[in-house]
Write the structure tokens for this entry.
Amino acid sequence: MSEKSAGGLATAGRVNKYPLPRIRAPKAPAGTLYRGNTGMWSWVLHRITGVAIFFFLLVHILDTALVRVSPEAYNVVIDSYKTPIMGLGELGLVVAIGFHALNGLRIILIDFWSVGPKYHKLMFVVVILLWAILLIGFTPRHLMHVFGG
């Protein structure tokens, strides 16, 4: 049979210098499915904003096509868009489009610039700063228009 020896495993009188490695289960991330790295959150936000923009475009195409079916129904739908809730929805749309566009440019730089992967975290910070600057310029003016200020 087999016995353990100091140098490894003994099998039928022979000593194996290279014992089999122990297989350990991978560590599960604590508290979240995502590990929280910059690249992961950028990926998640890019997908979420992309899906949100897709659904906006779908609704936009459908409500615009309504004018061919019934101009009166089209006017009712367009009038419903003039509410403060829809104004906040427009702000959300600008937030999504702004981030998605700037992060898309960052992704292009990562893919086609030789040092892009090296500076991806710095570029993400630049995207967030530019995004915040654009929103600071847009948000007050838009909210004044929405709420009649």
Summary: The first strand starts at residue 2 and ends at 5.
